[in-house]
Amino acid sequence: MKFLLIIIDGMAYHLFERFVYNLNTFSKLAEEGSYGPLESTYPSITPVALASIVTGLNPKNNGVTGPRIFVKGRTISSPLTAYNSYSLIAEPIWSILGKKGFKVIVTSSPQALPDIWKNNNVILFDPYKAKIKKCSEGKIINEGENEFLNKKWILKKSGDSFQLTLETPTGPLDIKANQDEWIGPIEILANCNNRDVKGIVFLHFRVNNVYISPPSFLTNWGNNESLVNEVWEKISKKVGMLLDGDYKSLSKGLITLEEYIKTAELSFNFFYEYSNFILRKTEWDLGITYLPIVDNFQHLFYGIDDGKSLDYIFSAYKMAEKFVNSLLDLADNLAIVSDHGIMKAKKRVYVNKILQKINVLRVDENKIDWKRTKAFYAGGGIIRINLVGREEKGIVKKEEYPKLVNYIVKNLENYVDPSSNEKIFPIIYEKQTPAGDREGDIELTIAEMYSMSSNNEKDKEIEDIIPYKNSSGDHGYYRKDDLYGIIILYGKNIARNRKINAKLVDIVPTILKVFNVNYNKLDGKPILDAIK
């Protein structure tokens, strides 16, 4: 018996209900299987929610409590990242089933790395580890000699024609192209962190320059080296390896909306071809796969009220349906789930700029001065105090802690949007004694139509979101529509025509029930109404 778990990042229940009757495959699966809303975690942020999906545990019990995770003995400036298997303190489903002799394949999951989970029955991949920090960003090069990732790129232009010379793993490559032509994927040779590495990019030849898409690299992003190399040769070099739409380049003004949409579609192509290749090539009892396109489009378009933006989002749901439809023949049973929903955002609030304004976060030459910083917002609604004895190099004494927390909370409670006089933080939780590992000393929610950022490089504390340039959709803070994704269960062991309500933590218990495996250390429960 084969069970396939398909995770569609961000597919929102309220939007799915709006679209489903124009999506034939989804409509059939929802009507003939078991279907309903799926309640996310707090915070309902992708790496946190995905950890609950694969463990059946709430964040405080699986250890992934936010995008950055504070633990005793680390500096406040270097918390654990949720995009790492070391962030988990609980056993994920691939480990549970692998130990029972079942074969498991994971095509993409933030904590699915082989550095901890070693089992001959389990194949783990995370293509996002093909990104290298400070090397995986898009770039514009102009006519003449350019440097890209410490390699020489020479661009010549004659009328509407271009010639580009660049370095590849097999030697120099001359590319001839016309204006407005997309070329790729191209395998390049780059130098990142003082080592040469193979990369994959797309090129867009524009009016006077060339856009280079964010590179992905041939790194150790799986525990089966020969299979990683085969993916590189048969998938990455043939359809590319863009992992998301290039939102950073769009927000910086480097690329147009049309170019962003192209990068998002190229990302879909990778996940479509890659998932089909891996899942059809390997033997497995449980397969877990992932698609980011819906979340990509909702973040950019959802808060724009012009009608056109909703068409873009619907196109992402259609791509997700195509993705699911291509995998239907692979398993006896399948679960289609999403980790969260989406809310509209019109303004972005930079919490660390507020902390800077009230003098508990210090900045020197546009960089945080950690030696003088008493509190820091790391995302996920969590503010952490830089406490002596808990944080390495902490500066806040324990006796100062209650007064400092009260001071911060009072300022946040009274903080208003200067343009509307509206309070920004409607609910604030505070701990009068210092928090333990993986917890915040202060936890925030934010008003509707606002989103929070940990960025400290902006000039303002609040900024208007620019449509079609900045992210206008957000999720994470228990605000109705961002809390609910979807769940569809379908297959020979699944009840037909059932309306169900479930939580993320119920996914693992349900899968284990279908496999007839007992495992009691879970927060969720099997969705018994959905199982025959």
Architecture blueprint of SSEs:
Layout (H helix, E strand, L loop, with lengths): L2 E6 L4 H7 L4 H9 L1 E6 L6 H10 L3 H4 L5 E2 L10 E2 L11 H7 L4 E3 L15 E3 L14 E4 L1 E5 L2 E8 L2 E8 L2 E8 L2 E12 L2 E11 L3 E4 L3 E2 L7 H15 L7 H5 L5 H25 L4 E6 L1 H9 L6 H18 L7 E5 L5 E8 H7 L5 E2 L2 E2 L6 E3 L4 E4 L15 H13 L14 E3 L11 E3 L4 E5 L8 E3 L8 E2 L9 E8 L6 E2 L2 E2 L3 H8 L18
Parallel strand pairs: 1-16, 1-17, 2-29, 2-30, 5-6, 5-16, 18-25
Antiparallel strand pairs: 2-28, 3-4, 7-14, 8-9, 9-10, 10-11, 12-13, 13-14, 13-15, 17-28, 18-26, 18-27, 19-20, 21-22, 22-24, 23-24
Helix pairs in contact: 6-8, 9-10
Output the keywords:
532 residues; alpha+beta; nine-stranded mixed β-sheet; five-stranded antiparallel β-sheet; 13 helices
Overall strand count: 30
Helical content stands at 25-40%
Q: Which of globular, elongated, flat, extended, rod-shaped describes the shape?
A: globular
Rg value: 24 Å
**What gap, in angstroms, lies between the N and C termini?**
14 Å
Strand content: 25-35%
Total helices: the number is: 13
> Averaged pLDDT, please?
95
Largest sheet: 9 strands, mixed
Q: Which regions are unreliable across 5 or more consecutive residues at pLDDT < 50? A: none
The SS-based structural class is: alpha+beta
